[in-house]
Amino acid sequence: MAAITASMVAELRAKTDAPMMECKKALTEADGNFDKAEELLRVKLGNKAGKAASRITAEGVITAFIDGTTGAMLETNSETDFVTKNDSFLAMAQAAAELVAKHNPADLAALGALPYSQDSYGPTLEDVRKGLIGKIGENMTFRRFKQFSGGNKLASYLHGTRIGVVVEFDGDEAAAKDVAMHVAAMKPVALTSADVPADLIAKERAVAAGKAEEDRKTAEAAGKPAQPAEIVAKRIEGGVQKFLKEVSLFNQSFVKNDKQTVEQMLKERATSVKSFTLYVVGEGIEKKVDDFAAEVAAQVAAAKQGA
What we know:
Number of strands: 8
Shape: elongated
Strand order of the largest sheet: 1-2-3
Helix content: 40-55%
Number of helices: 11
Mean pLDDT: 87
Radius of gyration: 27 Å
Low-confidence stretches: 46-50
Order of helices and strands: HHHEEHHHEEEHHHEEHEH
Largest sheet: 3 strands, antiparallel
Structural class: alpha+beta
Strand content: 15-25%
Protein backbone atom coordinates (compact mmCIF):
# COMPACT_ATOMS: atom_id res chain seq x y z
CA MET A 1 0.00 0.00 0.00
CA ALA A 2 1.49 3.33 -1.09
CA ALA A 3 1.87 6.05 1.54
CA ILE A 4 -0.52 8.93 0.86
CA THR A 5 1.19 12.22 1.74
CA ALA A 6 -0.34 15.65 2.30
CA SER A 7 1.46 16.97 -0.79
CA MET A 8 -0.13 14.22 -2.93
CA VAL A 9 -3.57 15.12 -1.64
CA ALA A 10 -2.94 18.82 -2.24
CA GLU A 11 -1.72 18.14 -5.78
CA LEU A 12 -4.82 16.08 -6.65
CA ARG A 13 -7.09 18.68 -5.09
CA ALA A 14 -5.47 21.45 -7.14
CA LYS A 15 -5.93 19.39 -10.30
CA THR A 16 -9.54 18.32 -9.70
CA ASP A 17 -10.96 20.98 -7.33
CA ALA A 18 -12.47 18.11 -5.33
CA PRO A 19 -12.79 18.26 -1.49
CA MET A 20 -9.60 17.41 0.41
CA MET A 21 -10.97 14.30 2.15
CA GLU A 22 -12.39 12.95 -1.10
CA CYS A 23 -8.95 13.34 -2.72
CA LYS A 24 -7.35 11.41 0.11
CA LYS A 25 -9.94 8.63 -0.13
CA ALA A 26 -9.50 8.38 -3.88
CA LEU A 27 -5.69 8.21 -3.63
CA THR A 28 -5.94 5.56 -0.95
CA GLU A 29 -8.36 3.49 -3.05
CA ALA A 30 -6.12 3.94 -6.10
CA ASP A 31 -3.02 3.01 -4.09
CA GLY A 32 -1.41 6.34 -4.94
CA ASN A 33 -2.07 6.20 -8.69
CA PHE A 34 -3.00 9.78 -9.71
CA ASP A 35 -4.75 8.88 -12.97
CA LYS A 36 -6.88 6.23 -11.31
CA ALA A 37 -7.63 8.53 -8.36
CA GLU A 38 -8.76 11.28 -10.73
CA GLU A 39 -11.01 8.82 -12.54
CA LEU A 40 -12.50 7.69 -9.22
CA LEU A 41 -13.22 11.30 -8.27
CA ARG A 42 -14.90 12.01 -11.58
CA VAL A 43 -17.12 8.98 -11.07
CA LYS A 44 -17.91 9.66 -7.41
CA LEU A 45 -18.07 13.46 -7.38
CA GLY A 46 -16.96 15.23 -10.53
CA ASN A 47 -19.76 14.28 -12.87
CA LYS A 48 -22.38 14.55 -10.18
CA ALA A 49 -21.29 17.97 -8.97
CA GLY A 50 -20.57 19.22 -12.48
CA LYS A 51 -24.06 18.42 -13.69
CA ALA A 52 -25.62 19.87 -10.55
CA ALA A 53 -23.74 23.16 -10.81
CA SER A 54 -25.86 24.39 -13.72
CA ARG A 55 -29.20 23.66 -12.09
CA ILE A 56 -31.33 26.44 -10.58
CA THR A 57 -31.34 26.67 -6.78
CA ALA A 58 -34.55 28.49 -5.89
CA GLU A 59 -35.41 26.56 -2.72
CA GLY A 60 -33.40 26.70 0.49
CA VAL A 61 -33.23 28.05 4.00
CA ILE A 62 -32.54 31.25 5.90
CA THR A 63 -30.24 30.90 8.91
CA ALA A 64 -29.19 33.44 11.53
CA PHE A 65 -26.58 33.64 14.26
CA ILE A 66 -26.43 36.26 17.01
CA ASP A 67 -23.85 36.66 19.77
CA GLY A 68 -24.37 39.90 21.67
CA THR A 69 -24.07 42.79 19.25
CA THR A 70 -22.51 40.61 16.54
CA GLY A 71 -24.63 38.57 14.19
CA ALA A 72 -25.40 37.44 10.67
CA MET A 73 -28.15 36.25 8.39
CA LEU A 74 -27.58 34.00 5.37
CA GLU A 75 -29.57 32.49 2.52
CA THR A 76 -28.46 29.03 1.40
CA ASN A 77 -30.20 27.64 -1.67
CA SER A 78 -30.95 24.17 -3.01
CA GLU A 79 -32.79 22.78 -6.00
CA THR A 80 -35.67 21.17 -4.12
CA ASP A 81 -37.49 21.60 -0.84
CA PHE A 82 -36.61 18.00 0.01
CA VAL A 83 -32.96 18.90 0.59
CA THR A 84 -33.94 21.66 3.07
CA LYS A 85 -34.87 18.85 5.49
CA ASN A 86 -31.47 17.19 5.17
CA ASP A 87 -29.49 17.38 8.43
CA SER A 88 -26.14 17.83 6.70
CA PHE A 89 -27.45 20.67 4.53
CA LEU A 90 -29.00 22.38 7.57
CA ALA A 91 -25.81 21.97 9.63
CA MET A 92 -23.74 23.55 6.85
CA ALA A 93 -26.17 26.46 6.45
CA GLN A 94 -26.19 27.20 10.19
CA ALA A 95 -22.42 26.91 10.47
CA ALA A 96 -22.01 29.27 7.52
CA ALA A 97 -24.13 31.92 9.26
CA GLU A 98 -21.89 31.65 12.31
CA LEU A 99 -18.79 31.96 10.13
CA VAL A 100 -20.21 35.14 8.57
CA ALA A 101 -20.88 36.63 12.01
CA LYS A 102 -17.44 35.83 13.40
CA HIS A 103 -15.25 36.54 10.34
CA ASN A 104 -17.20 39.14 8.31
CA PRO A 105 -16.07 37.82 4.89
CA ALA A 106 -15.92 40.36 2.06
CA ASP A 107 -17.97 38.25 -0.36
CA LEU A 108 -19.21 34.73 -1.09
CA ALA A 109 -15.78 33.62 -2.32
CA ALA A 110 -14.20 34.75 0.95
CA LEU A 111 -16.93 32.95 2.88
CA GLY A 112 -16.23 29.72 1.02
CA ALA A 113 -12.52 29.98 1.81
CA LEU A 114 -13.08 30.05 5.59
CA PRO A 115 -11.94 26.98 7.58
CA TYR A 116 -14.74 24.47 8.20
CA SER A 117 -15.06 20.69 8.20
CA GLN A 118 -18.18 18.52 8.27
CA ASP A 119 -19.17 14.99 7.26
CA SER A 120 -15.53 14.16 6.46
CA TYR A 121 -15.31 17.11 4.03
CA GLY A 122 -13.05 20.12 4.44
CA PRO A 123 -10.87 21.94 5.28
CA THR A 124 -12.91 24.89 3.94
CA LEU A 125 -16.61 25.67 3.75
CA GLU A 126 -16.40 25.49 -0.06
CA ASP A 127 -14.97 21.97 0.20
CA VAL A 128 -17.90 20.98 2.42
CA ARG A 129 -20.38 22.49 -0.04
CA LYS A 130 -18.87 20.62 -2.97
CA GLY A 131 -18.68 17.43 -0.95
CA LEU A 132 -22.36 17.60 -0.02
CA ILE A 133 -23.30 18.26 -3.65
CA GLY A 134 -21.61 14.97 -4.52
CA LYS A 135 -23.11 13.16 -1.54
CA ILE A 136 -26.69 14.43 -1.88
CA GLY A 137 -26.68 14.76 -5.67
CA GLU A 138 -28.23 18.19 -5.82
CA ASN A 139 -26.81 21.66 -6.39
CA MET A 140 -26.61 23.96 -3.37
CA THR A 141 -25.25 27.49 -3.15
CA PHE A 142 -24.71 30.32 -0.71
CA ARG A 143 -26.65 33.20 -2.23
CA ARG A 144 -26.34 36.24 0.05
CA PHE A 145 -25.50 37.25 3.61
CA LYS A 146 -25.31 40.24 5.90
CA GLN A 147 -23.05 40.66 8.91
CA PHE A 148 -23.95 42.91 11.84
CA SER A 149 -21.30 44.40 14.10
CA GLY A 150 -22.25 48.06 14.49
CA GLY A 151 -22.65 47.96 18.26
CA ASN A 152 -26.47 47.93 18.24
CA LYS A 153 -28.50 45.25 19.99
CA LEU A 154 -29.79 42.53 17.66
CA ALA A 155 -33.02 40.55 17.55
CA SER A 156 -33.97 37.92 15.01
CA TYR A 157 -37.05 36.05 13.89
CA LEU A 158 -37.21 33.03 11.60
CA HIS A 159 -40.58 32.04 10.16
CA GLY A 160 -39.86 28.37 9.62
CA THR A 161 -36.77 28.30 7.45
CA ARG A 162 -38.03 30.38 4.51
CA ILE A 163 -38.27 33.90 5.98
CA GLY A 164 -35.69 35.57 8.22
CA VAL A 165 -35.46 38.99 9.82
CA VAL A 166 -32.73 40.68 11.86
CA VAL A 167 -33.51 43.97 13.64
CA GLU A 168 -30.92 46.40 15.00
CA PHE A 169 -32.38 48.20 17.99
CA ASP A 170 -31.96 49.94 21.31
CA GLY A 171 -34.32 49.29 24.20
CA ASP A 172 -36.62 46.36 24.98
CA GLU A 173 -35.64 43.04 23.38
CA ALA A 174 -39.20 41.67 23.44
CA ALA A 175 -40.42 44.74 21.54
CA ALA A 176 -37.64 44.30 18.97
CA LYS A 177 -38.56 40.64 18.48
CA ASP A 178 -42.18 41.71 17.97
CA VAL A 179 -40.97 44.08 15.26
CA ALA A 180 -38.96 41.29 13.62
CA MET A 181 -42.06 39.11 13.56
CA HIS A 182 -44.10 42.03 12.17
CA VAL A 183 -41.55 42.58 9.37
CA ALA A 184 -41.73 38.88 8.42
CA ALA A 185 -45.53 39.14 8.17
CA MET A 186 -45.97 42.57 6.56
CA LYS A 187 -42.73 42.85 4.56
CA PRO A 188 -42.12 46.63 4.68
CA VAL A 189 -39.50 48.00 2.30
CA ALA A 190 -38.14 50.78 4.55
CA LEU A 191 -38.22 52.18 8.08
CA THR A 192 -39.99 55.41 7.14
CA SER A 193 -41.72 56.93 4.10
CA ALA A 194 -38.62 59.05 3.50
CA ASP A 195 -36.51 55.89 3.18
CA VAL A 196 -38.61 54.23 0.44
CA PRO A 197 -36.47 53.90 -2.73
CA ALA A 198 -37.17 56.53 -5.40
CA ASP A 199 -37.72 53.93 -8.13
CA LEU A 200 -40.55 52.32 -6.15
CA ILE A 201 -42.17 55.72 -5.61
CA ALA A 202 -41.89 56.54 -9.32
CA LYS A 203 -43.44 53.20 -10.22
CA GLU A 204 -46.36 53.76 -7.83
CA ARG A 205 -46.89 57.30 -9.15
CA ALA A 206 -47.04 55.92 -12.69
CA VAL A 207 -49.64 53.35 -11.59
CA ALA A 208 -51.74 56.06 -9.90
CA ALA A 209 -51.51 58.24 -13.01
CA GLY A 210 -52.56 55.29 -15.16
CA LYS A 211 -55.61 54.71 -12.99
CA ALA A 212 -56.53 58.39 -13.23
CA GLU A 213 -56.27 58.22 -17.04
CA GLU A 214 -58.52 55.16 -17.14
CA ASP A 215 -61.09 56.99 -14.99
CA ARG A 216 -60.95 59.96 -17.39
CA LYS A 217 -61.58 57.72 -20.40
CA THR A 218 -64.48 56.01 -18.63
CA ALA A 219 -66.04 59.36 -17.74
CA GLU A 220 -65.55 60.64 -21.28
CA ALA A 221 -67.22 57.55 -22.75
CA ALA A 222 -70.17 58.07 -20.43
CA GLY A 223 -70.46 61.72 -21.47
CA LYS A 224 -69.43 63.02 -18.07
CA PRO A 225 -67.13 66.02 -17.62
CA ALA A 226 -63.48 65.30 -16.80
CA GLN A 227 -62.18 66.23 -13.36
CA PRO A 228 -60.04 69.38 -13.15
CA ALA A 229 -56.30 68.75 -13.51
CA GLU A 230 -55.59 69.90 -9.95
CA ILE A 231 -58.07 67.34 -8.57
CA VAL A 232 -56.49 64.58 -10.64
CA ALA A 233 -53.03 65.61 -9.38
CA LYS A 234 -54.26 65.44 -5.77
CA ARG A 235 -55.72 61.98 -6.36
CA ILE A 236 -52.44 60.76 -7.78
CA GLU A 237 -50.44 62.19 -4.89
CA GLY A 238 -52.94 60.76 -2.42
CA GLY A 239 -52.41 57.31 -3.93
CA VAL A 240 -48.65 57.68 -3.60
CA GLN A 241 -48.89 58.79 0.04
CA LYS A 242 -51.15 55.81 0.82
CA PHE A 243 -48.57 53.50 -0.74
CA LEU A 244 -45.75 55.05 1.31
CA LYS A 245 -47.63 54.44 4.56
CA GLU A 246 -48.37 50.86 3.58
CA VAL A 247 -44.74 49.95 2.86
CA SER A 248 -42.88 51.88 5.59
CA LEU A 249 -42.42 50.00 8.85
CA PHE A 250 -43.13 52.80 11.32
CA ASN A 251 -46.39 53.74 9.59
CA GLN A 252 -47.77 50.21 9.36
CA SER A 253 -50.44 48.98 11.78
CA PHE A 254 -48.79 46.72 14.32
CA VAL A 255 -49.73 43.06 13.67
CA LYS A 256 -50.39 42.36 17.35
CA ASN A 257 -52.55 45.47 17.82
CA ASP A 258 -53.95 47.14 14.71
CA LYS A 259 -55.15 50.08 16.81
CA GLN A 260 -51.60 51.45 16.91
CA THR A 261 -48.76 51.83 14.46
CA VAL A 262 -45.39 50.17 14.88
CA GLU A 263 -43.93 53.58 15.70
CA GLN A 264 -46.50 54.12 18.46
CA MET A 265 -45.84 50.65 19.89
CA LEU A 266 -42.09 51.28 19.98
CA LYS A 267 -42.55 54.65 21.68
CA GLU A 268 -44.82 53.06 24.28
CA ARG A 269 -42.14 50.45 25.03
CA ALA A 270 -39.22 52.92 24.98
CA THR A 271 -37.52 51.14 22.07
CA SER A 272 -35.94 52.47 18.88
CA VAL A 273 -35.30 50.43 15.75
CA LYS A 274 -32.23 51.44 13.77
CA SER A 275 -32.67 49.07 10.80
CA PHE A 276 -34.10 45.77 9.69
CA THR A 277 -33.01 43.16 7.16
CA LEU A 278 -35.54 40.80 5.57
CA TYR A 279 -34.63 37.71 3.56
CA VAL A 280 -37.18 35.50 1.79
CA VAL A 281 -35.92 32.25 0.25
CA GLY A 282 -35.71 32.38 -3.52
CA GLU A 283 -36.83 36.00 -3.75
CA GLY A 284 -36.03 37.27 -7.23
CA ILE A 285 -34.84 33.89 -8.54
CA GLU A 286 -36.62 32.69 -11.66
CA LYS A 287 -37.76 29.16 -10.95
CA LYS A 288 -37.82 26.55 -13.66
CA VAL A 289 -41.36 25.38 -14.45
CA ASP A 290 -41.40 21.92 -15.91
CA ASP A 291 -43.86 21.35 -18.76
CA PHE A 292 -44.50 17.62 -18.44
CA ALA A 293 -46.60 17.36 -21.62
CA ALA A 294 -43.95 19.14 -23.67
CA GLU A 295 -41.24 16.92 -22.19
CA VAL A 296 -43.15 13.74 -23.11
CA ALA A 297 -43.83 15.06 -26.63
CA ALA A 298 -40.11 15.81 -27.06
CA GLN A 299 -39.19 12.29 -25.93
CA VAL A 300 -41.74 10.72 -28.32
CA ALA A 301 -40.40 12.82 -31.21
CA ALA A 302 -36.84 11.81 -30.39
CA ALA A 303 -37.87 8.14 -30.27
CA LYS A 304 -39.49 8.41 -33.72
CA GLN A 305 -36.38 9.97 -35.19
CA GLY A 306 -34.25 7.22 -33.78
CA ALA A 307 -36.57 4.49 -35.10
